[in-house]
Amino acid sequence: MQRRTLLISATTAFGARLAGARRANAANPFKVGFVYVGPIGDLGWTYQHDQGRLAMQKELGEAVSTQYVENVGEGPDAERVIRQLVSGGNQLIYTTSFGYMNPTERVAKASPAVEFEQATGYKTLPNMAEYNSRFYEGRAVCGAIAGHMSKGVVGYVASFPIPEVVMGINAFTLAARKVNPNFQTKVIWVNTWFDPGRESDAAKSLIDQGADILAQHTDSPAVIQTAEARGVFGFGQSSDMSRFGEKATLTSIVDNWAPYYIDRTKLAITGKWKTDSVWWGIKEGMVQLAPWGPSVTEEARAAAEDSKNRIAAGTLLPFAGPIKDQKGAVKVADGKAMSDDELLKMNWYVEGVQA
Amino acid sequence: MRIRIESRRSASRLLPWITPPFAVAATVVASAVVFAAMGYAPARTLFAFFVAPLLSVQSLAELALKAGPLVMIAAGLATGFRANVWNIGAEGQLTMGAIAAGGVALAFWDDDTARWILPAMCVAAVLGGMVWAAIPAFLKTRFGVNEILTSLMLTYVASLTLTSLVFGPWKDPEGFNFPQSRMFNDAETLPAVAGTRVTIGTILSFLVPLGLWVVTRYSIVGFEIKAVGLAPAAARYAGFSESRTVWLVLLLGGGLAGLAGAFEVAGPIGQLIPQITPGYGFTAIIVAFLGRLHPLGIIPAGLLVALSYLGGEAAQVDTGLPRAATGLVQGMLLFFLLASDFVARYRLAFAGTHSADVRPARPKAAAT
Amino acid sequence: MTGDILVALLATVVTSATPLLFAALGELIAERAGVLNLGLEGMMLAGAVAGFITMGETGSDTLAICAAALAGAALALLFGVLTLTLVANQVATGLALTIFGTGLSSLAGVNFTGRTVPALPALRLPLLSGIPVLGPLLFRYDALVYLSVVAAAAIAWFLKRTRAGMILRAVGESDISAHSIGHRVIRIRYLAVLFGGAMAGLGGCYLSLASTPLWVEQMTAGRGWIALALVVFAGWRPWRVLAGAYLFGGVTVLQLYSQGSGFVAVPTQVLAMFPYLATILVLTLISSGSARSRLSAPACLGKPFLAPG
């Protein structure tokens, strides 16, 4: 499922180079639309997608013009908005949430001349590609840090039990248990992606139950803030959250969509776009780790660097066996690793997770 | 909680239909000021917001699609509001209707030829919505529990029920463990009309207010509802049962909201997902009042509110106007429309004050 | 469960309940005067963003809290003009106010998203905060927590013991009679609505200044609706609003806590339903039987009043 792509490094005059290209020039820029699930100001998921859009716009200059619609519900409204972007003349449309998959598919079938990029789903068409990020690789690096720095109980504020979140919890726990075999991850589901007050309440409950590090798979910086206020550590999510907790933040997993947006938009402009199903990670720069926080110990830092480098090099697979489930039954044998297909459907927890 | 429904007390039957355009005009002017202050070209943004969505068949179809559930739910709710029954949980009743329809669809998913399946889904949805509305009805008539609170609380419960179903037993087995049901098969999906997303359900949604208008105007039931709302004591004296009315209007509102849920999942959505409604049940309350609780007023009100959503998206696409500005414009539109009611209802009543009546005027409920 | 954990847990409950308590107390006053304002969510957001911006710009928490109250009151004034002067429908105006306030706060706060401000400091009352168990339990909160409890007491006293409170209740119970004996119904209702807005603003700024000191769009996440429900739940009594807010906060936090403790085998969605079902159940219990007579809404709630010309 993964595709290697050499990112073309920034060129000074990309727009000029494309002047003769088939579909865009400064007077008649190539139009690219984005559909966002949250408000841009969410500081999390949508914010990072918009940062990707802005970076792409900056890189490609006058060759493209971008449009977006924010806060689009994943229900019946999504298809209307995507259709509207099509009729607005957009030639490439990014729909940035899983819930947009079926609406995108329907519009893509009806608009074969337009190319669609759908985030985190699984359906492709000749004019509809899927892209996703191996967030779990970042989780594994965080797990290595947690294994070294925690006394053994870590709290995890989680949104909904979808595979992406389950995978993250598991990768985190597996990496930590390699360091500390008794390591435990306590999970609280808050049943929302975004409710700072509730996320904070969950974080406090976890601290009260002995968690000395907090991880989160929700969007607001409330968890890091709570960690800072209560004197424990935490990992940020989506964007670098260190400003919300300077001492507390060990690192943040940063969603960096810019390389992908730049790459794919260039292909579309030059007419070389083809459908694909892409799952990029640390190696391609789609998953980044924010600079280690001041509280990270020397030992943890070394482990994290090592883990990050080996994941990027492909020598460390976060889901390599042996892996046991919560009941202790072996799910992945020694010497084997889970395939991408298995990962994408993951709905069980590894040993050490209390969810 | 007793909240009396107010309405116009105007001598003119015309004014209530004349003032809304002025309110829209005032919104346009105020919006232009806001857009200019935010640094967006006012003319272009206004055009994108209020005019562009009306210029193509496709977007008119989208307008109808968005307004459909609003007008149907609002028509049901308005009947209740006239009877002083404050069902604000239509959102939950819609969700329960969708769950019921989806349950039928998934149970017979293997059979993609059955002609009876769509009607069965609709019946199930109506029943689902009614069951959810029956809980506040029962608690109100049996224990005197306030229906505002129970219907609101049940909305949260309904949405969590849907979530737990699509995360659990109703999850698509081939769906990579994402929280979605299977896509309904062709027999379980309302056919779209003429290349748009509009379905027969959308059309029915607009017929419902018309039907309700006829029924409430010409039947004894309609009179009873009105009487209970206006003058409970007199209604009791006339032998109308208050609790029967409570049951009636709650079941009506719940059933219609449930049906709207079926039209959504069998129409534009085509499956069960965690978020089937973008707040239709709550927005419909506003639509009901903008339409002055009158079935015929609810249709233009629903279309206008739908336009404000579409226009907001169009303005975002065209000029990059942030989504938050849409909320601001919607708020202003509603404020102006509500304020324009004042002109329609009161000014004339004051014009000829030859009445020696010194008691404060209490607005009377509408006759129709 | 050791004492320390219990104390910490209760502290979480208190911070979780305080925004609800402020907003609900304000709404209680408005409703006792006969005005139903469903725009709590919008006013809370206005307070949250105004408080946060002021804190970010001036660094003064006193000014920030005042700004939040003013912002809430400003939106309430808009509501008042529409519903009291122009006699617009209160339910619809309240819902519109929520839409308006959400949009307005998002626009106002756009340059403040992602900034941080220091959290409101905990007031460690000298001597008292040193008492074992009781000290940490009762005397280590920020000023707004104490203010909310004092407000509950003051409102209870105001409604029951003062002449002004009696007039307010009279206006809510029978506006026509109150008017006929010379009380200025509309003016009193304006004051009540403005107070309600200011309190909602305080509730909002508790979120953006104390509970999670940051500004993000729509950060109230539905608390305005819960506060609204609390007023009814409490039967329009201030002390019961206080109890209800802490009960709701408690049930919510307990739900989260029990997940972390690992004793729970039911789906989390079912757990999350619990506070709502509990509210319905409690409401049914207090509505039925002998308690029923005591749970009565102000008779004029939501009804418009138009003074003779």
Question: How does this structure look, described?
Answer:
The complex is a heterotrimer of chains A (355), B (368) and C (309). Chain A is of the alpha/beta class. Chain A has 2 domains: 14-134 and 256-280, Response regulator (Rossmann fold), CATH 3.40.50; 135-254 and 287-354, 3-Layer(aba) Sandwich (Rossmann fold). Chain A is built from 11 helices and 15 strands. In chain A, the strands form 3 sheets. In chain A, strands 12-10-9-8-6-7-15 form a 7-stranded mixed beta sheet, with helices on both faces. A 6-stranded parallel beta sheet of chain A has the order 2-1-3-4-5-11, with helices on both faces. In chain A, α3 packs parallel to α4, α5 (135-149) runs antiparallel to α10 (298-313) and α7 runs parallel beside α8 (222-230). Mean pLDDT of chain A is 89; it is low at 1-22. With 368 residues, chain B is mainly α. Chain B has a single domain (15-349), classed as ABC transporter involved in vitamin B12 uptake, BtuC, CATH 1.10.3470. The longest helix of chain B is centred in the C-terminal third of the chain and has 29 residues, at 323-351. The two termini of chain B are 24 Å apart. With 309 residues, chain C is mostly helical. Chain C has one domain. Chain C contains 12 helices and no strands. Chain C has helices spanning 3-32, 40-58, 61-85, 90-108, 134-138, 143-161, 163-173, 175-180, 185-211, 223-233, 238-261, 268-287. In chain C, α2 packs antiparallel against α3 (61-85), α2 packs across α9 and α2 crosses α10 (223-233). The longest helix of chain C is centred in the N-terminal third of the chain and has 30 residues, at 3-32. Chain C is globular and about 60 Å long. Chains in contact: A-B, A-C, B-C. The interface between B and C is large, with 61 and 57 residues.
